[in-house]
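Good day; I would like, with your permission, to put a structural problem before you. A protein sequence and the structure tokens that stand for its backbone fold form the material at issue. Thank you for your consideration; the sequence and its tokens are set out here:
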Amino acid sequence: MNLYWLEDGKIQVDVVIQNNENKKYDGHIRAFITEIVSRYDTYYGGPYNFGFLDYAFDNDISINAGGIYTDSIIWDGNEHADEHGDDFGDIDPDNIQVTTVIYNDDDGYTDETIIARVNGNNPPDVPMISGSSSGNAGEEYDYIFITNDFNDDKVYYYIEWGDGDIEEWIGPYNSGEEVILSHKWEEEGTYNIRAKAKDVHEAESLWTNLEITMPLIKQSTYFLILRLLDNIHKVFPIVKQIIWFTLNL
């Protein structure tokens, strides 16, 4: 979950839920918007802690096996009011916490809870990775990483290349700047490039990934010709001598 302060009592709430099971998930999402120190007092005159204001989300969800559910809402405190008719347009971003709970339809139990706070600083967007999705083992390839920061802060990247090599919080780079990095996979196989970003205030984005495949090491044309010659020399010995002579001119 990411929270974005949009000024004038408005909060953008983004959620991403991944179903890691091998069957469909049916449940309910509820996101509680609360004031850390409530505007309301207890019976004894002190303020409530985490006083409830409203739901950002309160709806059923259904996620296919291995699937991802995403949702986003802009909650406007000016459009919500308490029982006295007072709206919440005066909320302080440093005093807001959102708690999201996922309930399982099968048994009614809570499967996941996550808490996030609004403090006026927003994390960078999920980075984008662009580059070749396949290539040859042993060759170097360029990949472009880019993210935007809502507050226009400088950003750092944490990158896992999928072969054990890691770029650990490289930067800083400007928001929106294309960062070109090169990498080489020595062995054939399928690899998963993963990346996330953070700003100078340590607010981190979600992960993103790009799957790539590296087949066998590319053989040189000269080596392929020599292998071909080995296969045909018994049938066409003169042809082999002519080609060998041409290659060595």
Q: What stands out?
A: The radius of gyration is 28 Å. The chain has three domains: 2-118, 128-214, 221-249. The chain has a mean pLDDT of 87.
